[in-house]
Amino acid sequence: MTPALxxxxxxxxWDSSYMEHExxxxxxxxxxxxxxxxTVLGLVLVGFGLWALAGAIFxxxxxxxxxxxxxYFARYFLETTKIAAYLQNGGEGLAHYLSWLAVILLLLVLGxxxxxxxxxxxxxxxxxxxxx
Length: 132
Known about the structure:
mainly alpha
């Protein structure tokens, strides 16, 4: 009787056929198209994120240079909430302070949305896995 030969295991990294299989991989055209689509979508998200961050920085800088420009938002806030009807002196001061708080919070939200868009776009972009 001849001894039984060990069974070939294709998952054995020490096996020469395993190395040949690993070096002989080809990329499917579907994977190439999906990678290109992911790259384009990632670039769009990064672009929107940078645009949102730039808008938040620009708006904050404009408020720093001209703090009285908050009056437009305060007037809109006063008209839409009808807060003047509940207060004796008209509520202009309260609307002014509340509008500052609302604008600062909106700028923070806009900045966070921009950061999320940049992060998601960067994660969508494929990277090279080649090891030269």
